[in-house]
Amino acid sequence: MTTSRVLSIALQDTVQFPLRPLPIEAAELLHSVDAPPRLVAHLRAVHDVAGQLLEWIATRNLDLGIDPEAVLFGAATHDIGKTLHPAELSAPGAQHEEAGRELLMTLGVDSAMARFAGTHAAWTTEEAGMEDLLVSLADKIWKNKRIPELEDLVVARLASASGRPVWEEFLDLDSVLARIGGQADERLAFQMSYPTAGNGHRPPNLPDALTTWFAENDAVLRTRGITADLRHSPGDGRLKKSAWLTVEAGNRAIQITVWNSGEAELDFVDLGSGDNRPEHRDLQSEQELHALLGSILDWIVLGTNG
């Protein structure tokens, strides 16, 4: 099975401009929701900046109560809600914030780790601690945008932990942000090199295509002694919708499950021999689905004639 477009952007080496890979947990979450390529690239850029900020703070040896893994995960997933509000990929909007927090929790992420999706643009709230401020800061400095109010909050935390005057902490932070911000053009070029939607094209809507195929062929299948049953995932707003078709005749049965991401899982069962053979496919078009269904029927019919 080849690496998906999302995982490739999230994890593989960036040749022209080095950016650290996303945490594997974050990359897999983005893959599971079929995140747009440009969003994944943006998250990788912000995550890299968060890593640079953490490296600088580590040299200070201050007790700031920071969990570096939490900050990196937050930076890597803070905009995941834009998969639910794609208009906010290219235009201002805040609907993605709480939507992202809720999405992460529905995907099994602990609320403490999911919170960054909701706090990255709300740094003045009581909920925002130093970890949240760092994610917010990374989300600005990646493109060299300076927000005095946000930076003042970070400086205050640093001064409180170090005991140094605020102005000294400000000068040190300003120097670090100027250095990181100086590479904003390279990060912007990396992000803009990817499309805002799909892999250059949208994956086929396989659940709908399978539903249409079943409606058109069910009666014909039954006249040939082949029984088929089609079911769908709950219509509860989940991003990865699926449909699965079970086909049986004689001693053979097969279940094919398809997702709107283009993935397909097959489970071939020979009831006579007890053999069970699973397969995975990545389908690029409805035509590929139809060809696969034809192969499935050939295998089923061969069992009845054997």
TrEMBL record:
Record protein name field: HD domain-containing protein
One Pfam family here: TriTu
InterPro entries on file: HD_domain, TriTu
Chain ranges of the HD domain: 57-141
